[in-house]
Amino acid sequence: MTQIIKNRSTPGILLFDLDDRLLFSNGQALDMLPGIDVQVGHGFNMPSEIFRICRRVKGTSETAEGHYGHPVMQKGEIYLSLRGFMLVSKVGSPSIMILIEQIVAKHEVNIEKIRQEFLLTKREADVVRFLCRGMGNKKISEEMFISEHTVKDHIKNVMKKIKVGSRNELMAFLK
After folding, report:
1. Burial class of residue 68 in the structure, from the number of CB atoms within 10 Å of its CB (0-12 exposed, 13-18 middle, 19+ buried)
2. Of 10, 77, 127, 160, which residue is the least packed, with the fewest Cβ within 10 Å?
3. Is 19 helix (H, G, I), strand (E, B) or coil?
């Protein structure tokens, strides 16, 4: 779990009123979105993706769930994940919070090294390889021609051998 936390960066935070006026921006948001207008009450220099999420959170677009997330925005070579939330306060007007997180580039995991170091079977190593490609249990079972239950068993065995308590910890360890 510690490794997962270490690998995460602080998200950028933008806070808007319901008229799309910028109320607050932290330093991380300014770093991730160079060139935005940082004066409170303005936001005309915001990327269109930000306002699209604001509209969706307010329910003026095709979704009206109160939150909307995970569109990806590209700024040069950097990819950003965006999530929006409606904030409702008993004392003030509702506002919209946009969280901006940098997506870390994938890198290849040396499966053979992991296999040898932790004495994984060939099938366990194959499951790890597919996990590293972002596949879910169903897709892995289809690729390996085994049941989803067997995939889960392989994952449990790998987690036990590597001494991690969850799938997230496993993925953080492998990266």
Report:
1. buried
2. 77
3. coil
Where does residue 76 fall: left (phi above 0), alpha (psi -120 to 50 degrees), or beta otherwise? Answer: left
Round to whole Å and give the CA distance between 27 and 40.
Answer: 14
Looking at every residue in the chain, the average pLDDT score rounds to 80
Compute CA distances 94 → 49, 70, 154, 155, whole Å.
20, 22, 47, 43
Question: Is the pLDDT at 47 greater than 90, yes or no?
Answer: no
Longest CA–CA separation in the chain, Å = 59
CATH topology match: 9-102 vs 111-174: no
Q: Which of 61-65, 93-97, 133-137 has the lowest mean pLDDT?
A: 61-65
Mean pLDDT (whole number) for 47-68: 68
Spell out the domain ranges in the chain.
Answer: 9-102, 111-174
Q: Superfamily for 9-102?
A: PAS domain (3.30.450.20)
166 and 3 Cβ atoms separated by less than 8 Å: no
Out of 2.60.40.10, 1.10.10.10, 2.60.120.260, 1.25.40.10, which CATH number does the structure's domain 111-174 have? 1.10.10.10
